[in-house]
């Protein structure tokens, strides 16, 4: 993970989401709704880039928005704290726990579920899963070549 990652649009989306979610958890209730709106914009943007509503980057963002929505229900508000930590890790070091979890869904993997796969998925420094922001890097490369 290099500082060049901070110039990637996907990184900025997650950075702003962390700020909005943190502000919500510190008492500014509007931050949560703005984070949800930003996620919806990001989902639309990624669908536009990939032209595929089932693509892995779309799955990650829809799951994230779903967790934000689930956390609106009183007993599940703790989910927002988990999201803050996870998204903070994504922004700080590029580790996307949600993407790694989703990579284990049966529709996203090509091998059987095993302890070896679990260990490799969660503990390897570079997962075999495409990064959350790879779609933006590909778009920049295509735009630069076109």
Write a structural description.
The protein is mainly α and 146 residues long. The chain has one domain. 66% of the residues lie in helices and 0% in strands. It contains seven helices and no strands. Helix 1 packs antiparallel against helix 4. The longest helix has 21 residues. The protein starts with 8 loop residues before the first helix and ends with a helix. The N terminus and C terminus are likely disordered.
Annotation, overall tally of beta strands: 0
**Could you tell me how far the N terminus lies from the C terminus, measured between alpha carbons in angstroms?**
27 Å
| Main sheet: strands, sense, barrel | none
Taking all Cα atoms into account, the compactness measure Rg is: 15 Å
Helix content: 55-70%
Overall spatial form: globular
**pLDDT averaged over residues:** 85
Structural class call reads: mainly alpha
Written as H for each helix and E for each strand, in order along the chain, the element string is HHHHHHH
Q: Any low-confidence stretches, pLDDT <50, length ≥5? A: 1-6, 139-146
Number of domains: 1
Number of helices: 7
Helix and strand topology:
Elements: H1 9-25, H2 30-50, H3 56-70, H4 78-93, H5 97-103, H6 115-123, H7 134-145
Key features of this structure:
mainly alpha, 146 residues, disordered C terminus
């Amino acid at each position: 993970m290099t500082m060049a990652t901070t110039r990637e649009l996907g990184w900025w989306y997650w950075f702003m989401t962390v700020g909005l979610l943190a502000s919500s958890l510190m008492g500014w209730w509007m931050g949560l709704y703005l984070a949800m709106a930003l996620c919806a914009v990001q989902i639309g943007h990624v669908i536009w880039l990939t032209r595929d509503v089932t693509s892995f980057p779309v799955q990650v963002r829809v799951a994230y928005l779903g967790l934000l929505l689930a956390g609106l229900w009183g007993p599940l508000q703790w989910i927002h704290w988990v999201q803050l930590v996870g998204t903070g890790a994504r922004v700080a070091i590029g580790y996307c726990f949600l993407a790694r979890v989703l990579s284990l869904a049966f529709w996203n993997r090509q091998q059987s579920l095993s302890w070896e796969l679990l260990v490799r998925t969660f503990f390897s420094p570079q997962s075999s899963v495409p990064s959350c922001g790879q779609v933006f890097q590909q778009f920049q490369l295509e735009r630069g070549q076109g």
